[in-house]
Amino acid sequence: SAGSHRRYTPEDVARLETMRRLTLAGAAPSDAARMAAQGAPGAPSGASLAAVPEALGPVRVDGLSLAAAAVDGLESRVLGMLAATVRSLGLVGAWLEVAAPAFGFLGDREPGDRPGRDPETMLANSVLSVARDVVAAADAGTAARKAAPGARVALLAGASVTERVGAHVLAAALAQRGVVPQVFGRVPDLDTLLRAVEGAESGAVCVIGSPPGGEQIAREAAERGQPAVFLVGPESPDVWLPGVLRVRTLPGAVHEIAGFLSAGESGPDEGSSGARGDGVEDR
Asked: CA–CA separation, 283 vs 279, rounded Å?
């Protein structure tokens, strides 16, 4: 206006309210702005992401939006965003493309939270909840398993929250393939890990990241000649021994571990070396 005041029309306010409802429903701000500008109807306030009308087109959930919801303490929104992303990308894809980046955004923010709010813990618990739902659906489903019956794997998680939660994501994805996984958040001795896979037709130990004692576990298993050990991620222990296989990515770990166990192998060929498929190396 002439007095340098910005004036908003009722239509402007309606678009803003639409955008706000959509972001509360889990839409990324960029998607919400596009929908509001197109005059699309907004989802009811407090609705889950699944309630956003299909006419609005695909709704993208990104790591920043998920982190913001965790900081705001909106647990139901966080769960809805994760569940919608799992439906579109799968559990591992949702972790890599949305949840893990959200942890990165939370780590970069200014420290200090209101009493009773811990965004990292909320996000971790939400990912674990979604992982439990994935495992429950796999257990209840009738789809043919790709891995051999009785295949078991003991997963040893690193100390960071992303390594611990990532271990559960990997375990749930393996459960979808018919593997029976068990996650260890603290480093036990090798005998404890062996008991977790004892009696299985095929078994393996998986070390994710760089947990204290993880390198010793890998070396002891290699010296015994069993079970096979998978080292997952670029930060995994620098061990190059027969029976120890390195996997650079989480999707590669799902594929290689399930495939290895389905073959019922007792261990990789000690004479093999170099790269294997999908980011796996064994020496």
From this structure: 14
